[in-house]
Amino acid sequence: MQPTNDQPQNSFPQTPENPFTPAQMQAGMIQQQLTLAFSAAGSNFYSIAVFSLINSVINYFEGNVYFPIGLGITQIVDGFSAALQQELPQARMVIFGVNVALNLLIVGLVALTGFIIKKRVKWLIAVGGGLYLLDGLLVLLFQDWIGGAFHAYFLYRVWTNWQFINRASRAAVPQSAIETI
After folding, report:
1. Which of 37, 130, 134, 173 lies at a 20 to 30 A Cα distance from 70?
2. pTM for the full model?
3. Mean pLDDT in each 10-residue stretch from start to end of the chain (181 residues)?
């Protein structure tokens, strides 16, 4: 291909200037990291809800295993339900229905917590973490050390996400500065 007269023979096309300032790029990266941190925190609560539901299904079929990340309160509800069903066989279906309703309510609230946290509601991380801490203490009351260790691990994950979100929120440039680009 022959160069044209208006284009020098050894030149490359000019790259356009970056329209973003370093401050705008940094603000955009912080916003992206905040979104990821909120998503991670919310996903922790989704995991807790799912494993609690799986534990309840396993309890219904009288299985011998459980997932220690699940909620201790749903296991207690399942235990009371099983004991009441043996004591009152004539009310077995009613007790089972109440058990399912309570478990779905508890699991639904935990999943809803995760959903709302993903919508960037920071204070709910602390509330959800506090409730999961209480559940962990309940697990330890029954001397479930493995369950207590998993509760501690997930509390650590929730705590580190919450700390990052607090630091990054203070450092973040207001969203309107990003939108002016």
Report:
1. 37
2. 0.78
3. 57 61 75 89 94 94 88 94 94 95 97 95 94 96 94 94 87 53 44
